[in-house]
Design brief:
The complex is a heterotetramer, with two copies of chain A and two copies of chain B. In chain A, 34% of the residues lie in helices and 25% in strands. By secondary structure, chain A is α+β, with helices and mostly antiparallel strands. In chain A, the strands form five sheets. In chain A, strands 13-12-9-10-11-14-19-17 form an eight-stranded antiparallel sheet, with helices on both faces. In chain A, β4, α4 (91-99) and β5 (103-104) form a beta-alpha-beta unit. In chain A, α4 (91-99) packs antiparallel against α5 (109-116) and α12 runs antiparallel to α13. Chain B is globular, with a radius of gyration of 22 Å. The longest helix of chain B is centred in the first third of the chain and has 28 residues, at 2-29. By secondary structure, chain B is of the alpha+beta class. The chains are: A alpha+beta, B alpha+beta. The A-C interface holds A 17-18, 21-22, 24-27, 46, 300, 303, 307-309, 331, 333-334, 360-361, 363-371, 374-375, 393-395, 399, 402-403, 405-406, 409-410 and C 17-18, 21-22, 24-27, 46, 300, 303, 307-309, 331, 333-334, 360-361, 363-371, 374-375, 393-395, 399, 402-403, 405-406, 409-410.
Chain lengths: 447, 187, 447, 187
């Protein structure tokens, strides 16, 4: 058992506040780190202590490992919570934390490193019995190898960067003639974006859903899952709306996906919270995409339907405690939806930083808001555009949609443009309401 | 009762700052006899440029007052930090930095401030038994090492990067410092 | 089935907003009524239409039956929701609504009238098999009668106004010598406060808990209960903090109390949401106090642990629909606490109306805020001092208390005094945390 | 997109009010000697351009003060009503009252306003085929019945309670009225 009395939060915005809230509830002191632009940010105001770690660009502050480690040392913290983004999936950072005898709140560094390499992760998951899309076991070297493989798998296929994410280094190939050009483009994009040109190839699903399973694993091989999240409403691989449970998943599929994820965690010695992302095909089969070894933006929908506090679980697991509930204790109650409110033009998606002149947060039954914004807050242009997460919970999906519509109507953000109008449109959309949609939803919605 | 406590600093800030500003401008403009439009324009630009929110001018012939609404944002922003600052750990770097990061303009105006380029622990001397690199009154050139900031077991020598005389040392030996925190005042 | 497409809300403040939220979720149009002072109030801004019904004193506006009925007529509403307080338990108002062919959202006028008369209510409940405190079946006429009865019941006894509430016309008598004086005082207080000097007498419990059962009943004799609320933290009969479930109630006691309440509803032909208030004695026996024939201030704690929307149920029942879930569907999940944030001095309880200069609402997991306040809102001196209800939900009572402490820390109200510091003190109090307290808690806490 | 819509009225309000005030000041000061109109206009523009909300100028001949009302409370308050006003029922009494409850000060200054003492339906005549009680130009004394407001099937005759001439009728026959809503302007 490790004594965790003080945690440095190596992040900003709503997730830094979210972590502080749970620390307060656990009686744990908090240290905020911040850039110069974030001196007036809410995570700085709510933390017990705050340290300015550098200039405004993320590389100088929130990605500045020496500065963050120094801040941890001068404030004498027991652990660092990395949140999501920034250093959350940096095996290097996790290793340095270990070396400095500061507990990194997340899985072991070697597990992060393994899951960060898509090819390695795929191989490991396959060995652990997780279904994966038919494809190349190793990075593709030549067009000939790719062609051979694609013929075996069957077109369409997708080329993906081994190190990547967010759509960069990704190409869909529908016939063999396109293969050579797409392979070269993907490799050079991957090299530019991730300093690693390795790509692999796998079957491409035309209308899949993005379904992810939330797991909790302690250091003693106790692993449970908290059901799935439906994350198919994405725009260019950026999630916009998430739900729990998924309208496409029944109890039996949930059990099967959960069991696969739990077994895999045990195989790789995973501990902490984590997420298995799957593609669910129209025929009900599902395939591993990647594992996120950190808290997710969309974790609140799972918290709403299970009443679990996932951050609390992360901290307890990091302290060496055993999971304090079993799979049988996990009940999915009602339906939850999250809308990401971004400081963006709701049509063109161009960022809209600036000062928030009016800000009203909705309240009432079944409404949760995670935000670091407030009236008068200036959204800086340096970071992520998400300013709030609007989350609702109700007995059924239909009631949850009605609640979200009401909450969106009550949410007032003036001074900057936000995605609120887009969310209103999606909530009113017949296809969304039917629950019958895929990751292609936004492409077709835009059109 | 902490919401009352929290509001106190904000309430005090307004009048105090306003007082400072008013005095400064009276000093600057009191010799002038009258104002024409060009002068008024210049005056407005000047006051605006400096971000002042209140300006008054008066002599036997003339009295001018300019004011700008102060941002309601600050009032509306939650300020629980003041609430928690008191019970928080006394060795916290946040508390001292909050005071020293922006040295009172009146005192330190005209000083060149050497700030910490990194987060770490501030040492005035190369070792526990050694003399400080510099003291008040020391002359420095750009290459002069003025202190060490220890970060991740590394001793980072900080150079003056300016010439002049050390007139102020903002941080005590062995104290933690954050990025951008003032260390020395050079004249 | 009645068609309810538009509802007038004969109330103000947070409960008016609360009702509007559910109406929005149900696609029902809303009409706000307001006094001149409330022109800028949030319920006016959020409603589809608004009608100024009179001057600032409640008697001229929110209690002004002709003005409210006229407002309902000119806006052509189908129903009126009375909220709590004001006209919510006025049988006269309910009758006039019926006469004007406007559906009053609540039980029938005759049921309201019966429950409004304490002696009558007591008699009816006794006949329906509800345990009542030993005492006088009819109003007491003479000291002799009182003395005779008190001897039978055993001292201490309590004298209560038949028409009353809120502690007026109430006297505890511990020995016979005090009886005559107390009886006279109680009668004259009752006469002054309620224009009705009738009082009755019953056994006085030294350290009871205030436990209430939430019921839902439709017009077809379907009745369910949503478990209990713990409301023992009161100051001068004004509730300050409510919880669900009660730390003193086990599943068996809940079932017994619930069954008694459900049976009574069927006996009296009750329909709509309602609350049975009980005193729970230290030995586990419970006694009927009164029935509230309206939505309660503290209804959110029940909503948090059952995921029911009580206002939605009221409206559906008023529309003539059947209850859409049965007793078996009702699950109590986790623990919920509500703190009433009043614009009052937290020590002296003197009202503190005025302008709210800064207002920050807590967010994050398991936090709900019901409020009609906003930054810049001026709390008028004419009405109730409650400006917000802070409600939390967590897996256990201990976690809920920690969450409430965190939420109270995040809640910022400047410009007026509030009861937030008092709630912080209570949440930190060992006796409160132990769960072992009675309605005497605040008397002893103050001391 | 409604948050943009909602902000529009607030944004418009500032300049409009300021315009009113500016005109008033021009009227008041235009005959005076030492600052002429052009200078004042320039001055106002100057002050506005820099976002000042208050300006005072005074010497032995002249004193000028310009001010712009800031309403931080209004800006900070949620304003979803504007969003919903458009799709709301057209017969809603809220919408007309919002416009007529505070008649533009410039037009109606000096008028005595007869307001509705109750909520109900406004009728100008005692019956459908009858002549109106009063019309524009009618002389009234305090006892003159000026209209009926029907509430709960009761016809409530409203008396003028002042003497003068009817110069304005704010509400159309058969329209709903709320408490305090202006009915007639009397001069």
């Amino acid at each position: 058992m490790r004594d965790i009395r003080k945690i440095l939060i190596a992040n900003r915005g709503e997730i830094a506040c979210r972590i502080i809230w749970t620390c307060k509830e656990m009686g744990i002191k908090t240290v905020a780190v911040h850039s110069e632009a974030d001196r007036e940010a809410l995570h700085v105001k709510f933390a017990d202590e705050a340290v300015c770690v550098g200039g405004n660009p993320s590389a100088e502050s929130y990605l500045n490992i020496p500065a963050i480690i120094s801040a941890a040392e001068i404030t004498n913290v027991d652990a660092i919570h990395p949140g999501y983004g920034f250093l959350a999936e940096s095996a290097t950072f996790a290793t340095i934390c270990e070396d400095c005898n500061i507990k990194f709140i997340g899985p072991r560094a070697d597990v992060i490193a393994m899951m960060g390499d898509k090819v390695e992760a795929r191989r490991t998951m396959q060995a652990a019995g997780v279904p994966i899309l038919p494809g190349s076991p190793d990075p593709i070297e030549s067009t000939e190898e790719a062609a051979q493989l694609a013929r075996e798998i069957g077109f369409p296929v997708i080329i993906k960067a081994a190190a990547g994410g967010g759509g960069r280094g990704m190409r869909i190939v529908r016939q063999e003639s396109e293969l050579h050009g797409s392979l070269e483009t993907a490799q050079s994009e991957a090299l530019a974006a991730f300093k690693n040109g390795a790509v692999y190839i796998e079957r491409y699903l035309e209308r899949p859903r993005h379904i992810e399973i939330q797991v909790l694993a302690d250091e003693y091989e106790n692993v449970i899952h908290l059901g799935e999240r439906e994350c198919s409403i994405q725009r260019r691989h950026q999630k916009l709306i998430e739900e729990a449970p998924s309208p496409a998943i029944d109890a039996e599929t949930r059990r099967r996906m959960g069991e696969v994820a739990v077994k895999a965690c045990k195989e790789i010695g995973y501990s902490s919270a984590g997420t298995f992302e799957f593609l669910l095909d129209e025929d009900g089969s599902f395939y591993f995409m990647e594992m996120n070894t950190r808290i997710q933006v969309e974790h609140p929908v799972t918290e709403m339907v299970t009443l679990a506090d996932i951050v609390r679980n992360q901290i307890r697991i990091a302290a060496g405690e055993e999971l304090y509930y079993s799979q049988d204790d996990v009940q999915i109650v009602g339906h939850s939806i999250e809308c990401r409110i971004n400081a963006e033009d709701p049509v063109k998606f161009t960022p809209s930083p600036g000062k928030i002149t009016a800000f009203n947060i909705p309240g009432g039954p079944g409404v949760r808001v995670d935000t670091a914004a407030y009236p008068g807050y200036t959204v800086p242009p340096y970071y992520d555009s998400m300013i709030a997460k609007l989350i609702v919970h109700a007995r059924t999906r239909e009631l949850a949609i009605a609640r979200m519509q009401r909450a969106l109507d009550m949410m007032v953000v003036e001074g900057i443009k936000t995605t609120i109008p887009l969310h209103r449109k999606i909530m009113a959309d017949e296809r969304f309401r039917s629950g019958n949609f895929s990751t292609k939803f936004m492409e077709e919605f835009d059109a | 009762m902490s919401e009352q406590t929290a509001s106190a600093p904000a309430a005090e800030e307004g009048p105090k700052n306003e007082g400072n500003r008013r005095r400064k401008h009276q000093r600057r403009h009191s010799h002038e006899a009258s104002l024409n439009m060009d002068e008024l324009r210049e005056l407005a630009e000047l006051v605006n440029e400096h971000g002042f929110t209140d300006f008054e001018f008066e002599n036997k012939n003339i009295r001018v007052r300019l004011s700008k609404a102060t941002t309601p944002a600050y009032v509306a922003a939650p300020q629980p930090m003041a609430v928690q600052a008191a019970p928080a750990a006394p060795a916290a770097p946040a508390a001292p930095s909050a005071e020293t990061a922006t040295p009172a303009a009146s005192e330190d105006e005209g000083l060149h401030i050497i700030t910490s380029p990194i987060v770490g622990t501030f040492y005035r001397a190369p070792g526990p038994d050694k003399d400080p690199y510099v003291s008040e009154g020391s002359k420095v050139s750009p290459e002069t090492v003025v202190c060490i900031v220890e970060a991740m077991k590394l001793m980072n020598e900080i150079q003056a990067e300016t010439s002049g005389e050390v007139v102020k040392i903002f941080v005590e030996n062995g104290q933690p410092v954050e990025y951008g925190q003032p260390l020395f005042g050079i004249k």
